[in-house]
Amino acid sequence: MRQNTGNCGGRLVLTFDDGPDGRYTGTLLDLLKEEQIPAAFFVVGNHAAKEPELVQRMAAEGHIVGSHSIEHRNALISTYSYMKRDFEACRKIHTELLGRPPRYFRPPWGIRNLFTRKFVKEQDMRMVLWDVMAQDWRADASTVGIVKKLRERVSDGAIICLHDAGEDTGGAAGAPLKTIKALELAIPDLKALGYRFISLDEYFAGAAL
Questions:
Q1: Is residue 14 a part of any domain in this protein?
Q2: Given 17, 18, 21, 164, which residue is catalytic?
């Protein structure tokens, strides 16, 4: 994890896991549009199939839509054949909804097994983890607490991982509402400190220079 050295300003990448969820994701997209922030949504395949309009809206509004597995299963209990079906199913859903396969993959909980890298490479994707979390999925998370963690933990070049869904993937009921309210406060604050939100594409283009 990157450490906040006290220096303000720099680049941040905002990412969201576990959605889309019809109760929360649209409101989050409204906020990102208002703040003119590009984000990356790592969607669970089964959720994406149930909310195609939200997935298509993400892409239409300039956000990256990445894969977060088909059902958010722990890779440590997943066999080769399951992982193969998982990656193929996600590729099919993304292609049907967006006309192209996903370019980025985030493993559930960041957990990988011996086959994860193999299928990421075979499907010409890039694996993306994170530098900053704010434990926004927890039942005891608070809006103020999420804002505080973001402010204290970010630094230049940090990839932030938050959640726009998650009741069936380990998150507390209603947790994304707190996340959205926290972002309403944190985004202007971070911008005032000189941070600039960039897309994953821009982030990796810069890393290649």
A1: yes
A2: 17
Active site annotation includes 68: no
Amino acid symbol at 2: R
Annotated catalytic residue within 30, 163, 164, 189 = 163
Question: What is the CB-side half-sphere exposure of residue 24 using CA atoms within 13 A?
Answer: 23
The predicted model scores a pTM of 0.94
E strands of 34-168, at which residues? 39-43, 64-67, 104-105, 126-127, 132-133, 158-163
Total domains present in the chain? 1
Q: What are the structure tokens assigned to 130, written together?
A: 């994170």
Q: What is the pLDDT of residues 60-117, one digit of tens each?
A: 999 999 999 999 999 999 999 999 999 999 999 999 999 999 999 999 999 999 999 9
Is 94 a residue of the active site?
A: no
User: Domain containing 194: what range?
Assistant: 10-208
